[in-house]
Amino acid sequence: MTSGITKVTTHISPNEQLIFERSQSGRIGYRLPALDVEESAVDTLIPKEFQRDDDLEGMPEVSEVDVVRHFIRMSTWNYSIDIGMYPLGSCTMKYNSRLNERVARIAGFANLHPLAAEEDTQGALEVIYELQECLAEITGLPGISLQPAAGAHGEMTGIMIIRAFLDARDGAAASGRRTMLIPDSAHGTNPASAHLSGFSVKTIRSTAEGLTDLDHLRELCAHGEVAGLMLTNPNTLGLFERNIRQICDIVHEAGGLVYMDGANMNALVGVARPGDMGVDVIHLNLHKTFSTPHGGGGPGCGPCCCTKELEPFLPVPRIVKTDGTFRLDHNQPKSIGRVKAFFGNYGMMLRALAYTLTHGNDGLREATEAAVLNSRYIAEGLTTDYDKPFDSPPMHEVVFTDKRQSRKGVHTLDIAKRLIDYGFHPMTIYFPLIVQGAMLIEPTESVGRQELDQFIAAMRSIAREAQENPELVLNAPHDTRIGRLDEAAAARKPVLRWKPQLQGEATPA
Amino acid sequence: MLEAIGLKSAEQLFDSIPQQLRLQRPLNTPAALSEIELLDKFEQLGRRNTAAQRTSFLGAGAYSHYIPTIVDHIISRSEFFTAYTPYQPEISQGTLQTIFEFQTLVCQLTGMEVANASMYDGSTALAEAVLMAERITRRFKVIASAAVHPQYLEVVQTYVQHAGIDLELANFDQKTGQAGAALVEAVDDQTAALVVQSPNFFGCVEDLKAVADAAHAKGALLIVAITEAMSLGLLKSPGACGADIVVAEGQSFGVSLSFGGPYVGLFATRDKYARQIPGRLVGEAYDKKGRRGFVLTLATREQHIRREKATSNICTNEGLIALAATVYLEAMGRRGVQEAAQQCLQKAAYAAKRIAGLKGFSLPFTAPFFNEFVVRGPLGSVELLSRLAKEKEIEGGIALSRFMSDRDKDFLVCVTETNTREQIDSLVSALNEL
Fold first, then answer.
1. Complete DSSP assignment for A210-267
2. B164 CA to chain A: closest CA distance, Å?
3. Are residues A11 and A157 in the same domain?
4. B336 touches chain A (CB under 8 A)
5. Which residues of A, range 147-206, sit inside 8 Å of B by Cβ?
6. Would you give the DSSP letter of residue A403?
7. Looking at the partner chain, which of A64, A107, A347 has a beta carbon nearest the beta carbon of B261?
C-alpha cells in the first residue's frame, strides 16, 4: 500500500489520523487575552482536593491549521445533500437553505440568553409565537409546544399528553387503560416512546394492501383498555391511510385518542390537515418537513401539536400573547411538565420560520406537490426492474423490494452499497420491517427530473448487474475510502474511545 | 412530468386522500417573502432582543464563552451540516470519526470510561441517567440535590412520572450552599441513585468523593450533573471522585447562547454499564483490507431494534452541536481549556470580592465556587436587575426568586473569560450607585 511515491496531498485524504494521534506536546491553537485581574493563588479559591490532578492528560495539543485540515479532510469522506440526492425514505432530506443559516446567526438571536427578562427578549418570543401560529394552521391543530428537541421527544410529549388527559378524564379508572396500539409498520421510536409513558404496546396488522387492518383495530379496541393509537400517515409504506376518519372514530368510540407520527408530513403540507382527519395530537419534525439541517444526526426540533381539548396538558412554559406583548405562562396546572431546559432547540425554530416565510402559503403546497410527483415518477420508473409490493400509487415515498434480485443472491444491502458507487446516497433499507428486503425511497422536492432520471438509470443498471455480474454488486462499494466494515466484530468487542497506545503495542491490522 | 406518469393535474397526485379530507383553500399562512424582506424582518426582530446587546453576567445553565472562529466555519461545511445520521459508514466516515473523537474527549474531561454520541441537552441527559440508574439497580428511589438546576429537576420529574420512580430532594445547607452532606445523610439501601450537581445551581463546588462513597456504601449509584462544563478544565473530574454516570451540558464548548438551544448533552459512564447507555455509540471497526473505520455500534440497545424494550426512545440527537464541541475542544486543546477555566475562576473571584465589599451587598454562601456565585443585595433582586439593565445596560445576573420564593434579594452572577475587568468594574460601580 505504501509502495511508490508518497503523495503530499490527495483529493480525498485516505488516512487522516485521529486528532489524538496527531497531538504534539506544547502545540496550541488558540490565544486568550492576558488575565486582567489580580490573580489569586488557586488553592485559596478551590481546595487542593477539589482540583484536577491529571493535567488533562491525553487531550489534544495541536495548532489551528492542524485542526482545520483535520476536519476538512474528514469532511471529504461524507456524503451530503449539497453533493446530491439523498433518497432516504422517511427522513425527508431536502435542501437546507443558506439563508436560514444566516437568519439563525443574527446576533440578536445568537447572543441571546434564555433567562433574560421577557421584556428584553420580545423579538425571540415573537418568532416562537409566529411559528406556532403557522404550524397550527398547517396541521389544523391549535395547541402547540415547540419545546421537544427531536421527533422521538415530540412523540414522548404527545403520548404523555394522552396519558395526562386520560388520567384527568377517568381518574382511577384510567389505570385500566394502558394499552397503546401501534401498526406493525411503525417507526421504532413509537413503541419506545409509549413505553416511556407507562403504556404497553399491542401491534395492529396491516392489510395486503398496505393499510391499517380495520377489523383487527376493532377487535383490539373491543376490550376497553385502549388508551390510544399511534399512526403514521401517510404510513411508512408511503400510502395514505384513506380510512383515517373511520380509524379515528373507532379509537374515539373506544375511549382512546389518536396520535399521529408526523414524520411524513412532507406529503401533506398545504393539501390535507391531520386536525381535519380526527387526529388529536401529532409531532412534526422541523428537521425533515421544514428543512432545518440534519447535521449528521441532529439537532432536530419536534413540535407537538394538539386539539384545544388537549392544550392544557402541553409542556410549560407556554408562550402567549396579550395586548401585543409576548410572555411566558407557567401557570398550567394540568401540564405534563417541562420536557427540556429553556425553550427547546430555538435555532431550529428560526430556520423553520424562515423556510415557511420564504416559501409562502402557495410555495408550501407546491413543495408538497413536487415531493409527491417525484416519488411517483420513481415508482413508475423502477417497476420494470424491481418488485413493488403494493399497487396503490404512493405519496411522497415508495417502497420496493429485492425479491427479483435475491434470486441471484443479491440483497437490499448490496443494492444500497452499489448505489454508492453510482454517486448516490442509498435509500432507507430494511424498513418498514413488515416488508422483506424493503427499500424505501423518498426523493423530496429538492431534485429535478434530470437527477431523478439519473437515479432511475443507476437503479436499473444495478438490477442488470445483479443478473449479469452479481459479484460486482455483492462487493460494493468499490471506490470509497473504506469498504464494508465488520460490524459484528465491532459490537462483540466494542472500542468506543481512543486510548494512548502502550509502548510496543502494534496497531491492529 | 405529470404526463410521464399519466396524470393531467397536480390535484390527481392526491387522489388517495378522500376529497372531504383535502384542504379546499389556500393555507392561511403569510405569502412568500424575498431574501431581502426576510432578512429585514429577522434583523428587526433581533433588535427587539435588547438583552443580547448588553454586557452580560448571566449563567445558570447557559454561558457566554469565547468561540474560536473556526468552529462556525467547520460546522458550516456542507459535508457536515447537510449530512444525515451516519447509517452508511462507507460515505459517513467524516461524521463517524468526529463522533469517536467527541466520545473520547468527553471521557477525558469527565474521567469516565465510555461516552455516547450526545443527548439533546444537559437536562434530558440527566433524566435519561436517572432512568438508567433504575434499570441497573432495580431500585425505585432517587434522591437529588435541591441545588440541581431547577429546570433540570422539572425535566427529570416529567420523565420519571410514569416510570414508578420516586424523586426526593435533599436540601442544601443554608450556610455553605452545598447539598452534599444532606445527600450523604439521606441515602439508604432502597436508593437507586444520588443526583448531585457540581458546581451546583448556586455555583458552589460539592464534595463529590464524599457523596460517591456514601452512595456506594448503600449500593446506590452516583449521578453527577454539570451545567458549566468549562469547570472540568480545573475541577477534579467526577470520574476520579467515583461517579457512576456523568451528564453535562456541553454548551460552554463553542456553542452560542441562541436563546437556549440547540445545545448538546454529554453522557458518560463506566464500561460495565455500556450496554445500558441511551442513544448512539460509535465504535472502531475494520474492513476486509484491514483499514480502520468507525461505525454506529451496540445498536441492539436502540429503539429501531428493541422497540419498546430499548434503553431510550432517542433517535436524532445533537450531531452538529457535538461537532461544534469537538472542534472547540481540539482548537482550544489541553492548555486552552485549562486557561479558559483558570480565567473564569480568577475573574469570578475578583468580581465576588469587589461586590462583597459594597455596602448592602453580601455573599450568602461560603462554599468554594468556580465562575458563578450568589449575591444578596439591599433590595428585591428583580427590581435591582431590571434597573441595572435599563439604566446601566448591564445584564447583572439572574434573580433567584424566579426559582425559589424565599430568596427575593438573592441573584446569581456569572463571570467568564469573556468579561473584561472594565466590565466587572462597571458592574460593581453600577451596583454601588443603584
1. SSB-HHHHHHHHTTS-EEEEEEESS-TTS---TTHHHHHHHHHHTT-EEEEEGGGGGG
2. 9
3. no
4. yes
5. 149-153, 155-156, 160, 163, 187-189, 191-198, 200-201
6. H
7. A347
Q: How far apart are CA A80 and CA A294, in angstroms?
A: 10
Which residue in the set B1, B94, B298 is minimally distant from A78, CB to CB? B94
Q: Is B70's CB within 8 Å of A484's CB? A: no
Q: Which residues of B touch A191 (CB under 8 A)?
A: 303, 307-308
CB contact under 8 A, A113 and B235: no
**Nearest by CB: A51 against B236, B260, B261:** B236
B 72-131 residues with CB < 8 A to A: 72-86, 88-95, 97-101, 103-105, 107-109, 111, 113-115, 117-118, 120-124
Look at chain A and report how many structural domains it folds into.
3
Say if pTM beats, i.e. exceeds, 0.90: yes
A436: which residues sit within 8 A by CB, 6+ positions away? A401, A403
Handedness of CA A88, A89, A93, A94 (dihedral sign): positive
Cα–Cα distance between B202 and B122 in angstroms, integer? Answer: 17
User: Is residue A503, in this structure, part of any structural domain at all?
Assistant: no
Chain A contact for B359, CB < 8 A?
Answer: no
The domains found in chain B, sorted by start residue, are 54-67+334-433 (3.90.1150.10), 69-328 (3.40.640.10)
Read off the CATH number of the domain in which A346 is found: 3.40.640.10
Together in a domain, A55 and A118: no
Angstroms from B53 CA to nearest CA on chain A: 7
Are both A354 and A423 inside the same structural domain?
no
Question: pLDDT truncated to tens, each residue of chain A (509 aa)?
Answer: 434 666 555 556 667 899 999 999 999 999 999 999 999 999 999 999 999 999 999 999 999 999 999 999 999 999 999 999 999 999 999 999 999 999 999 999 999 999 999 999 999 999 999 999 999 999 999 999 999 999 999 999 999 999 999 999 999 999 999 999 999 999 989 999 999 999 999 999 999 999 999 999 999 999 889 999 999 999 999 999 999 999 999 999 999 999 999 999 999 999 999 999 999 999 999 999 999 999 999 999 999 999 999 999 999 999 999 999 999 999 999 999 999 999 999 999 999 999 999 999 999 999 999 999 999 999 999 999 999 999 999 999 999 999 999 999 999 999 999 999 999 999 999 999 999 999 999 999 999 999 999 999 999 999 999 999 999 999 999 989 899 999 999 999 999 999 987 555 544 43
Tell me which of A317, A336, A358 is where a domain ends: A358
Helices and strands, counts by H and E, chain A: 17, 12
Does residue A442 sit in the same domain as residue A475?
yes
Pairing of strands B114-115, B265-269: antiparallel
CA A310 – CA A315 distance, rounded (Å): 11
> Do the Cβ atoms of B211 and B185 come closer than 8 Å?
no
A485:B64 CB<8 A: no
**Residues A131 and A271 occupy one common structural domain:** yes
Same domain, A120 and A14: no
Check residue B89 and report its DSSP letter. G
**Burial label, B98 (beta-carbon count in 10 A; 0-12, 13-18, 19+):** buried
Q: Give the gap in angstroms from C-alpha A127 to the nearest C-alpha of chain B.
A: 8
Determine, for residues A150 and B120 on separate chains, whether the beta-carbon distance falls below 8 Å: yes
Q: Which domain holds residue A23?
A: 1-77
Would A191 be classed as within a structural domain?
Answer: yes
Whether B414 and chain A come into contact, CB under 8 Å, resolves to no
Instruction: Determine contact: B417 vs chain A, CB below 8 A.
Output: yes
Give exposure, A41-54, as e/b (b: 16+ Cβ within 10 Å). Answer: eeeebbeeebebee
For residue A208, the distance in angstroms to the closest alpha carbon of chain B comes to 17
**Same domain, yes or no: A354 and A375:** no
**Dihedral-angle region of residue A302 (phi above 0 means left; psi in -120 to 50 means alpha; beta otherwise):** beta
Q: How near does any CA of chain B get to the CA of A266, in Å?
A: 13
A84 in a domain, yes or no?
A: no
CATH of the domain at A447: 3.90.1150.10
Identify whether A260 is part of a domain.
yes
- Co-location of A178 and A29 in the same domain: no
